[in-house]
Amino acid sequence: MTEAELETLRVPPYLSAKVEGSFAYLTIRDRLPTILTKAVDSIHRNKDKFFEQYGEEGLRAEKAAIGLLSKLRNELQTDKPVLPLVDELEDAEGWNLYLQRHEALQGEQDPVSWFRSPWLYVECYMYRRIQEALWLNPPISGFDAFQEAKTQSYFESQRAVMALCTHLEGLRKTVAGLPEDQLLEHFDRLLQVSLWGNKCDLSISAGQDNSQKTSPIDSLAELRPFILVDDTRAVWSALVSARDRGGPGRVDIILDNAGFELTTDLVLADFLVASGLARSVRFHGKSMPWFVSDVTAQDFTWTVRQTVASNHRFMSASGVQWQRYVREGVWTYLDHPFWTQPHPFCDMAADAPDLHAGLQGAALVLFKGDLNYRKLTGDREWPPTAAFAAALRGFAPAPLCSLRTLKANVQVGLQPGQAEQLSQRQPDWMTCGQYAVVQFHSPPRRGP
């Protein structure tokens, strides 16, 4: 047997809803239908707006889109086979090829269906079908069924955003002259803020309020014990090494949630540039509304504009600085169809070689949040002590770090006995969102 075949045997199975009572099962049985219902409600609440803008055609589109989503909810709840996409969006062919791949793997005896197929695949597929239902019904094709929830979450986090921008303003005045040890302290603090910003996830709460109400800086000391793996020093070393070799490098941030979490990411990015730890920052978001609160181009632009327009002077000053970064090309927002496809990231080099090649130029790639962690590790049944590098299965375009609060039952890189102790103390430690990891991996150095 070849080494490649042995490696295939060692890869654990995908997480799925086959196991009744598992987190994947409860997600598909309970949380996904709730999210679909809220999407339907959002479309229906905008019925009058559609009529004002588009007349009877808007009403027809609203009714037809809701009909498709109601059908989708029934398919999900009754474990029907997954259907090919019928729209003409650029990624439809790739999605249908992916379905064919899984049909071939599962065989005729076990069709690709909601409860019997990889959880990561069917959960992503639901959000893609929401987009299909809207796209098939112009003139409301561009409607974001999750926008109201994202906007509400942002405004409900204003006090925390003000505190964070006030902290950043103080840093800007002193960061240029700070000694290295103090710079590390500030880096550590803002990396943690970005990490815990990931708690504000509207998909895990099925759209319920999950906003940040208090100052994130004040909470860091009491949250530190809940970081199960902390590779912050390795992340710092990657940035400093790149800076010392040839000047500050580029940092890529693979975004997760809009609202408060996005603000924490912007604050971290501002600090990286102002401190000379990064030359530029590229933000990667979603090309369509995704997992309720994931960042789209509209969310990114709207957040910066709202920050500029704030009556709070330090918030407004931060927004003005962020606009300047964007205008001067220091910050760039990008999206790519691969981020809204079901592929694990180990498939990126083959399925999105342009994206993979682009990431290779980064001094550091930060992957935010739970969905990105699931894709980094393939959303498989890894033992908790499996090495992070092994779970990545060769994915290492550049030094990378996952900043993630745990909201799905996959976690690697723990010490022997650590998971067992956590299970005794808190049985739902993998899914409750109270624990977090800062996990780093660097590919072997190439060249001199």
- SSE order, as H and E? HHHHHHHHHHEHEHEHHEHHEHHEHE
Distance between the termini: 36 Å
Rg on CA atoms, Å: 22 Å
**Binned strand content:** 5-15%
What topology, given as strand order, has the largest sheet?
1-7-6-5-2-3-4
Instruction: Please outline the major beta sheet.
Output: 7 strands, mixed
- Count of helical segments? 19
Query: Whole-number average pLDDT?
Result: 93
Instruction: Report the helical percentage.
Output: 40-55%
Identify the overall geometry: globular
Properties at a glance:
448 residues, alpha/beta, seven-stranded mixed sheet, 19 helices, disordered N terminus
Explain this structure:
The chain is 52% helix and 9% strand. With 448 residues, it is an alpha/beta fold. A seven-stranded mixed beta sheet has the order 1-7-6-5-2-3-4. Strand 2, helix 12 and strand 3 (278-285) form a beta-alpha-beta unit. The longest helix is centred in the N-terminal third of the chain and has 23 residues, at 23-45. The protein is globular. Residues 1-9 and 202-210 have low confidence and may be disordered.
Write a brief caption for the model.
The protein is an alpha/beta fold.
Strand and helix map with partners:
Elements: H1 3-10, H2 23-45, H3 47-54, H4 56-77, H5 92-106, H6 119-135, H7 147-156, H8 158-174, H9 180-197, H10 216-223, E1 227-230, H11 232-246, E2 249-254, H12 260-274, E3 278-285, H13 297-308, H14 313-327, E4 331-335, H15 348-351, H16 353-359, E5 364-368, H17 369-376, H18 388-392, E6 400-405, H19 418-425, E7 436-441
